[in-house]
């Protein structure tokens, strides 16, 4: 089963969706894994071993018309900015050669099955290379109102050798910037309650016009204000891989010694 940060974000999203389906009433989200050795269907001709992930909730369930559209791009029964869309989840799974199946009835909860192909591991696993030298000692402020998504972003940035500081709102980000200007970059969610990412980015640039800022969203960058784009604010699509994060950082953080921006 993949251990890629993007897959970790997928699991978090399935759990968040299950929790949202329960709402404020008492309920249970059950997560299980198993090895399946006999999968053979239209998507996977010929038997081969798979890892199965199952996320089950006893929430409200789905009407047939909702279940039919749940993998359509941009379809959601929730407010914008909550985790990943199910179309993106499906795309990640298919990108790993897997499948996703959904069982749901109104008032009977939902069970999501994810199947991912297993592969043989080599006898000798090489040690991962050290973090890129260009990021060692660099400081990044990460802003996201979703604690689980924020945690994933912090762990990915840490894998690149960055020193991370994390807050849950645009307002808190500005408080941190008023306390210290010792950041090499801000990575900020675009859709947040209260002060959104675009407004917080504009206020941050007013405090420090030379501070690199990346806005991140599961939607496109088309709605970004022209003033922010002219000021050099970048965009990072959600979800992103570690390689995509590194490539975007390479465009905004000078590769010289830590603490010296070009």
Note down, in words, how this protein is organized.
The protein has 262 residues and is of the alpha/beta class. It has two domains: 5-117, Histidine kinase-like ATPase, C-terminal domain (Heat Shock Protein 90, 2-Layer Sandwich); 133-252, Rossmann fold (3-Layer(aba) Sandwich), CATH 3.40.50. It is built from eight helices and nine strands. The strands form two sheets. Strands 6-5-7-8-9 form a five-stranded parallel beta sheet, sandwiched between helices. Strand 7, helix 6 (197-207) and strand 8 (213-217) form a beta-alpha-beta unit. The chain is globular. It starts with a helix and ends in a 10-residue tail after the last helix.
Topology of this structure?
Elements lengths: L4 H18 L6 E11 L8 E10 L6 H6 L16 H10 L3 E6 L5 E8 L21 E5 L3 H13 L3 E5 L2 H10 L5 E5 L7 H11 L5 E5 L8 H5 L3 E4 L4 H11 L10
Helix pairs in contact: 1-4, 5-6
Summarize the structure.
The chain is of the alpha/beta class. Helix content is 32%, strand content 23%.
Keywords:
9 strands; Heat Shock Protein 90; alpha/beta; 23% strand; 262 residues; Rossmann fold; four-stranded antiparallel sheet; five-stranded parallel sheet
């Amino acid at each position: 089963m993949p251990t890629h940060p993007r897959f970790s974000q997928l699991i978090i999203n399935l759990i968040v969706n299950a929790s949202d389906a329960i709402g404020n009433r008492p309920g249970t989200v059950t997560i299980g894994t198993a090895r399946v050795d006999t999968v053979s269907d239209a998507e996977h001709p010929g038997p081969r071993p798979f890892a199965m992930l199952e996320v089950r909730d006893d929430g409200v369930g789905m009407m047939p018309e909702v279940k039919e559209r749940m993998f359509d791009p941009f379809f959601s029964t929730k407010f914008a900015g909550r985790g990943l869309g199910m179309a993106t989840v499906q795309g990640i799974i298919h990108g790993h050669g897997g499948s996703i199946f959904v069982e749901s009835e109104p008032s009977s909860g939902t069970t999501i099955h994810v199947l991912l192909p297993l592969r043989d591991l080599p006898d000798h696993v090489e040690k991962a290379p050290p973090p890129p030298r260009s990021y060692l000692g660099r400081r990044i402020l990460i802003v996201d109102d979703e604690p689980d998504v924020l945690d994933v972003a912090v762990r990915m940035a840490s894998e690149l050798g960055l020193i991370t500081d994390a807050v849950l709102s645009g307002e808190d980000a500005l408080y941190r910037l008023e306390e210290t200007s010792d950041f090499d970059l801000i990575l900020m969610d675009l859709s947040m309650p209260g002060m959104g990412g675009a407004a917080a980015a504009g206020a941050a640039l007013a405090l420090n016009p030379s501070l690199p800022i990346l806005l991140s969203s599961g939607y496109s960058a088309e709605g970004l204000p022209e003033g922010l784009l002219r000021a050099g604010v970048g965009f990072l699509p959600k979800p992103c891989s570690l390689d995509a994060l590194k490539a975007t950082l390479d465009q905004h953080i000078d590769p010289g010694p830590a603490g010296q921006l070009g």
